[in-house]
Amino acid sequence: MNFTTWGRTYRASPARWSQPRDEAELRAVVARAAADGLRIRAVGAGHSFTDVAVTDGLLIGLDRLSGLESLRRLPDGSALVTIGAGTRLHELNRLLATRGLAMRNLGDIDRQSVAGAISTGTHGTGALLGGLATQVRALRVVLPDGSVRSVSGDDAPGSPDRELFEVARLGLGTVGVLSAVTLEVAPAYLLRSTEQVRPWDAVVEGIDALFDGHDRFDAYWFPGTDRMLTWSHDRVPAAEAARHRASRRGVLGAARTLGDAARSVLDEEVLANGVLGGVMQVATAAPRTVPRLNAVCAAALGDRTHVAPSDRVMVSRRRVRFAEMEYALPRAGLADVLRELEGWLRSSGEPVPFPVEVRCAAADDVWLSTARRRDTAYVAVHQYHRMPRERYFAAAEEIFVAAGGRPHWGKLHTRTAADLAAHYPLDDVARVRAAVDPDGVLRNDYTDRVLGLPA
After folding, report:
1. Measured over all CA atoms, what is the biggest interatomic distance in the chain, rounded to whole angstroms?
2. Is the pTM of this model over 0.90?
3. According to the model, what pLDDT value does residue 265 have?
C-alpha cells in the first residue's frame, strides 16, 4: 500500500498497512508492530501537508473506528459526545445535526478525521473561540504495548493521566494511537454569513476591529490586487433563528431551500472550484498571466449575505489541490506582517494565483497549541500543487518567523525543535512521550524534527 498526502506533498510506502475494525484489533496490531520493532503512525484523510504520517513501518488507517459511541446531555443544552477517532468531521457534523447539536468551532474543510484534526492543531477562526483541541474533554489512547489509557481534562493537574491527556489531544500522534475522542458540543445554531469586498488598506488597518466585531472572521486576498474579500459569521439570535427555521417549512420553504442549495453549488463548485481550477491551469502554463488572472478573480467577487446551519457556513469544499504554509502570529503584529508580505510579492513578481488567508483565534492553555497563551492571528499562504512554491514560502516564512510566528503543525514549514522550544514546553512533552513510548516506536522524521527526541 502506498500513501500520498492530499496536497501531493509527501509519499510513503509502509511495510505494513492496517485498518482495524475496532479497538481490540487496533490494540493487537499496535502491540505486534511494536514487538517487531516497527515504527507506527496513524492516518486519517491525509490532509496534513507535512510528513507527519509518513513511516516505513506500520501505517494505521482509522476510517473504520468511526461513529457515535455515546452522548450525554448537559444542563445548559450542550453535550458530551464520544466518537470513534477515525470519524470524519463531515460525518460528525451530520451525527450532531440530527440530534440538535453542533461543533463550537470548525476549520474551513471537513474531510479530516477527528483524530487527525485535533492532533495537528486545526483551529478555525474567531477572536473568542479556540481550536478543535480545546473542545476535547477526554480520550482513549492505545499505547505501544497494546494497553489502553482513558484520560481526560478532569484528571488531577500534574498527574500522569492529565499530562498524557495534554499531549494526546494535540501531539502529532506521539503518545499513542487515538481510538475514541470525547468532545463538548453546543446546541445547534445558525450563522449569518456576510461576504463583503473591501479595500486592502481598510482591512489591514482595521483588522483588530473586524476580528473583535464578529463571532468569526476570515479575509482572503489575491496577491497583486488592492481588495480583500472579508467573510464574517455571526450567530443568529434565538428568536430570529426560530423564525428562519419556520420559514423553511412547507412548500415555499422547501423551494427556497432548494434555491439556496443551487446557489451553494454554483458558488462552490463553479465559481470557487471550477473557475479556480481553470485559473490554475492557465497560471501553470503561463505564469506571466497571474497578475491579470488575480485581478479578474478579485473583480468577480461580490457582496452577499445568507443564513445557514453553522457547519454549512464554516466549511467550504476544496477540490483544487494546493500546498499550504500557515503561521500563528501575535495579533499585535499582524498588520505589519501583511504589509511586508505584500511588499515582497509586489517587488519579487512571484506568480501566486492562490489567495492569502487571514484568520484569528483566542488564547488557550493546550501545551502544543499554536495559540498557546496569546491571542493569535493566522496567515496562510498557498500555491497550486503544480507550480513552484519554494521561493514564495521561504520569503513568507522569514517574515512570519521574524514576527514571532509559530508554524501550523499540519502545514509546510522548516522550523525545528531548537526553534520551537521558546514557544512550547517541549521538555515536558518529551518526558510524557518517553514514559509511554520508551522504545520510540511512535516517532518519525517529522516528529524528531519538530519535537526532538523523547527524554
Report:
1. 64
2. yes
3. 39
